[in-house]
Write a structure and sequence with these properties.
The structure is a homodimer. In chain A, 41% of the residues lie in helices and 14% in strands. Chain A is of the alpha/beta class. Chain A has 2 domains: 136 residues, Aspartate Aminotransferase, domain 1; 238 residues, Aspartate Aminotransferase, domain 2, CATH 3.40.640.10. Chain A has a 7-stranded mixed sheet with strand order 2-10-9-8-7-3-4, sandwiched between helices. Chain A has a 4-stranded antiparallel sheet with strand order 11-12-15-14. A two-stranded parallel ribbon of chain A has the order 1-13. In chain A, helix 2 packs across helix 10, helix 5 runs parallel beside helix 6 and helix 7 packs parallel to helix 8. Chains A and B meet through helix 2, helix 3, helix 5, helix 6 and helix 9 of A and helix 2, helix 3, helix 5, helix 6 and helix 9 of B. Chains A, B: This is PLP-dependent aminotransferase family protein. Chains A, B: One of its GO terms (molecular function) is transaminase activity.
C-alpha cells in the first residue's frame, strides 16, 4: 500500500516557480541582528511623527467613528481625495474627482496593470527599474523591455525607437530619485520624453513615491504636468515614504473615462482601502505640516547620503560608477567588469553588511556588477563602518 | 481645423464596457435619503463596538507605534495570524503559518484567483452566488458556471456532473447563511459535497464571512474541516461582518505549497495589508470578547429577520418563494413567473424602498423574478413600513 498523493492546488502559470524568491532569501539574511542592512528601502522609524499619526487616528475614531468602521467607496473617501488633489495641484491642476485611492503604490501599479494589460502586451521600463512594478506587470502576462538610461534617466531616442518597434501598452517611469538608481530626470529630459510620448501616442505610468524627499530644495514637475501629458498619464503617489509605510495609502491621478475603469478594477481587487486609514491620512494631511516633516526627514537622509557617498568613494574599484542622488532613498553602484554583486553577497553578510544585488532590477540584460544601497535606515557612523567592511569584501573580490 | 482627438487609455478586455454598472446606479439610487435601502449588506453602525476598536488602535499606537507604521510582511503580522488560527481551530486545527492576511474577503478572493486561474478556466459556483466573487474570478478570464441549488445549497449530483463535464479549476461555495439566498448547507449536504470534491480531485474555495452570525446558536463546521478537505480548500474569513467593514481585514486558511504562492500573489497585488489595522484587529481579538459581540449583533439581526419575514409573507404573490435564513444578513425572494425585479425597481425606489435585483447574482441563466433583501441595516418598524410599500409595488405589477 502506498500513501495517497497529497493534493496539489492548481497554480497559474504567472506564479509557477515563484514559491520562493532569491530576494526573499536576501531579505531574510539581511534581517539578521548582526547585519547592517542597506537592502530594503526602510524608513528610519525614529523619524515617524508617531504622536501626530496617533492623534489623527484618535480624532477620526472620536469624531467619525461609525463612518470610519463602515464600508466606503472604491474611489476612496472624499476628504482624502481632496487632500491628495491639493498636493498634486502644486504642479498639475487636479480635482478630487481625478484621484483614486489605493492601498499603497503597489496596489496602484497593480490596478493600472489590471486596467490596461492583456497577456502578450509589452511594457517599456527604465533599465534598471523598480522590481515590484515589474512583478505587478509581469503577472498580467506582459513582456517587460528595459530601455537604455543614462545619468539623466531614460534616453529619449532609445525610448522612441523602442516604442516604434514594440508598440508598448504603456511606458513606466520613475523620473525623480529613481528606484534603484537614485537618478533624476532634469526638466529638459522630461520635456524630451514627453515629446516622444506625445508624438507616438503612448500612455505613461509615472511613479513618484520619492519626489518630495529632495536634498537640495529643488522639486521637479511631474511629466504628467507637461503640456498634453495629463490626459495620457497615470500619476502615482504614496504616503509610504512621506508619512508611514504601515498605513498603506497611495493614490492615482488620472482623467477621463479611465477613472471609472480604475474604480471598477479597484473594486474587483479589494473593494476599497481601509476607511479608517483613509480618513486618518486625510486628517493628518489637513492638520499636520507634512512639508515640514518631509524637510526634516530629507535633512537626515541627506546626511546619510553624504556619509555613504564619502565612505564608498575610497573603497570602490577604479572602474566603478556610483550615483550621488539629490533625494530619495537609494544609491546605485556599478562595480564594473568582472564583479558579481550576487556572488559577493554571502561574504558581505558574513562581514555584517547587506545590499540588494542589482540584477533583480533589470527587466532584461542585467548588469550583474551592480548593487542598490539604501542610505536612509542607519545613522552616519553605522553607515561608515559597514561600508568599510563592504569595501574589504569588494577588494578581496576584485583587487584594486 | 478640427480639435485633436482626446487621448484614450488602452483598456484591457476584462474591463471593457464596465465603466458603469447597473448595480452602481442601483446603489446610488438606494443611497437617497428618502429611500429605505435593503440593497447593500451594510452592518448597522449603531452596533459597532466603537470604544473597543478605538482602544485597540490606541493601544497599538502607544505600545507598538513604530512597528505599526513600518513595513510588514506579505503573509501578515504574526499576532493577527495567531488570533485567526485560534478562531479557525475551533473547527479545523490551524497554525499561524497556515494563515494569510488579506485586505478583506474581496482581496482574498482576488488573491485566490490570481494564484490559480488562467484565461479560459472554468469556475463552478452556486446558482445564485456572490456577485463580487464572480467579478474577481471573471476578470481573470474564467468562465463562470452556475450549479443547481436547492434549499440545502448546491446539489451534489449536479455538482459532480458539472465537474466531470467542465473540469473546473476550483469550486466556489458559501455554505453558511449564503449571499444572496441566506441558505445554509446542513452537515449531511456538506459531507456529500466533500465526497464529490474528493472523488473528483477538485479544489474548493470556501467563503465564510457570515457563519458566526447564527440566530439559533447553531454553527456549522466548514467543509474544509471534513476529512480530507483541509488540503484542498482555501477557507476565507472576514472581520467585516463581525467587527467592522471599514478596517478591511480578512484571511485565507490554507496548507502546503499554496501558502507560498498566496504570499507572492499578495505581494504583487498590494505588498501587505495595513500594519496598523492588522495589529489593531489582533489586539481587539486578544482582549475583546468577539463572541459576545457577535451574539448581541445576531440577536438584533434575528429580530430584523423576523420583522422582514413577517412583513413579506402577506404581500408576496401566491407563487413566490422566500427564504428564512438561520443567520447572516440576507433574505432571498423569488416572486415567480411573470415578475421582473429589475424593471420593478424604479417604482420601488419612487415608493421609498430599494433592494438588489437578483439577476446579478447568477453566473448564467438568471431568474429575473428574484430579489435580495438585506434585513440587517434598519430597525423592525422601518422594515415593516418599507416592506408594506414594496408590497404595493409588487401587487401593482403582478396582481395577487
Amino acid at each position: 500500500m502506498t500513501a495517497p498523493e497529497p493534493f496539489r492546488f492548481p497554480i497559474a502559470a504567472r506564479y509557477a516557480g515563484m514559491e520562493s524568491s532569491p530576494l526573499k532569501d536576501i531579505f531574510a539574511l539581511a534581517a539578521r541582528p548582526d547585519v547592517v542592512s542597506f537592502a530594503g528601502g526602510i524608513p528610519d522609524p525614529a523619524l515617524f511623527e508617531l504622536a501626530d499619526v496617533q492623534a489623527a487616528y484618535d480624532w477620526v475614531l472620536t469624531h467619525h467613528g461609525a463612518r470610519a468602521l463602515q464600508y466606503g467607496v472604491s474611489e476612496g473617501e472624499l476628504e482624502l481625495r481632496e487632500q491628495a488633489a491639493r498636493r498634486v495641484s502644486r504642479h498639475l491642476p487636479t480635482t478630487a474627482e481625478q484621484i483614486r485611492i489605493t492601498s499603497g503604490s503597489q496596489e496602484g501599479l497593480f490596478v493600472a496593470a489590471q486596467a490596461m494589460l492583456e497577456p502578450g502586451d509589452t511594457v517599456l521600463v527604465e533599465s534598471p527599474t523598480y522590481l515590484a512594478a515589474v512583478q505587478a506587470f509581469s503577472v498580467h502576462g506582459a513582456r517587460m523591455l528595459g530601455v537604455e538610461t543614462d545619468d539623466e534617466g531614460v534616453v529619449p531616442e532609445a525610448l522612441e525607437q523602442a516604442i516604434r518597434e514594440h508598440h508598448p501598452k504603456f511606458v513606466y517611469l520613475i523620473p525623480t530619485f529613481q528606484n534603484p538608481t537614485g537618478r533624476t530626470m532634469p526638466l529638459a529630459r522630461r520635456r524630451a520624453v514627453a515629446e516622444v510620448l506625445l508624438r507616438t501616442g503612448t500612455a505613461l505610468v509615472e511613479d513618484d513615491p520619492y519626489g518630495a524627499l529632495s536634498f537640495t530644495g529643488t522639486t521637479y514637475p511631474a511629466i504628467a504636468s507637461l503640456p498634453g501629458m495629463a490626459e495620457r498619464t497615470l500619476l502615482m503617489n504614496s504616503m509610504s515614504k512621506l508619512m508611514a509605510p504601515g498605513v498603506r495609502i497611495g493614490w492615482i491621478r488620472a482623467q477621463g473615462p479611465m477613472l471609472d475603469t480604475l474604480a471598477v478594477a479597484k473594486a474587483a481587487i479589494s473593494m476599497q482601502s481601509s476607511v479608517v486609514d483613509q480618513l486618518t491620512v486625510a486628517r493628518y494631511l489637513e492638520v499636520c505640516d507634512l512639508d515640514a516633516h518631509v524637510a526634516r526627514v530629507s535633512a537626515v537622509y541627506r546626511e546619510r547620503r553624504d556619509a555613504m557617498s564619502a565612505a564608498l568613494a575610497p573603497v570602490l574599484p577604479a572602474g566603478a560608477h556610483v550615483t550621488r542622488p539629490e533625494g530619495g532613498m537609494f544609491l546605485w553602484a556599478a562595480l564594473g567588469e568582472g564583479f558579481d554583486a550576487q556572488s559577493m553577497l554571502a561574504e558581505a553578510v558574513a562581514a555584517g553588511v547587506a545590499y540588494l544585488p542589482g540584477w533583480s532590477f533589470f527587466a532584461d540584460s542585467p548588469d550583474r556588477s551592480t548593487m542598490r544601497l539604501s542610505f536612509v535606515t542607519h545613522a552616519p557612523e553605522v553607515i561608515q563602518s559597514a561600508i568599510a567592511r563592504l569595501g574589504e569584501v569588494v577588494a578581496a573580490h576584485g583587487g584594486r
